[in-house]
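Margin note: ligand = adenosine-5'-diphosphate.
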Amino acid sequence: MWLEKLPEHKTELIDSKGVRADGRKLDQLRPIKLEVGILDKADGSAYIEQGKNKILVAVYGPREAHPKHIALPDRAVIRCRYHMAPFSVDERKNPAPSRREHELSKVIRESLEPVVLTDLYPRTVIDLFVEILQSDGGSRCAGITGASLALADAGIPMRELVAACAIGKIEGKLALDLSDSEDKYGEADLPVAYVPNANLVTLLQMDGELTIEEFNKGLEMAVEACKTIHTMQREALKKKFREIKESVIEKEETEVVA
Ligand code: ADP
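Resulting structure:
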């Protein structure tokens, strides 16, 4: 059990100046890197780094549903598998799916379903593979952010991108985007997925305890962070399409010269 291996400096998560162990302010996100369309074989893909999290997402579909009995007559079924690589955490993780992985697969799927226009593709399935290559707290949120980019990369019609971020409480203070040790030592963790243009929350979980005031303030902070992440998602998509446009123009110019 990984909890037994925690370091013992519980009181040093925030210093006297309000600076966190990794140098961040309480309302600061970890550095985020987003890339779209990095796998050739999948219909859509994305890679996200958020702090030390490294997550790869692949999308297949919409395609014919197998097994056939899962197909729905009026819309596509979204299937999601959140999986932690054995080397994603300090101690080798058993590769067999754990209860936690089943839960996270479900909540990631449910956080994306409201934005995907599944009714355009009856009797089909859309498969989402969220592979955690390295995990450092907040992997379900980073997985959602990456998965919605991979869906967009697959060209699957969506109302909007979903962005996600957790807020937590450490040493009595609200802190954005908890790292692994903050998550484990902290008093609360509140993962949030949010669709900015619809002002819609598609995931809200809570672990630990918050007062109503802390909850309201925390949700507000998480929503603001999701808006920031959403802007980064749009930039990552635009970057990919700018690159495609440039390579098409370059190809056309070469053909004209030849
Ligand atoms: P999230 O990654 O969304 O915060 P949890 O709160 O369940 O999900 O987990 C927090 C962190 O605990 C994970 O990001 C990961 O770093 C760590 N963790 C989860 N499962 C294991 C495991 N089997 N072994 C070691 N660390 C784990």
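The two ends are 64 Å apart (CA to CA).
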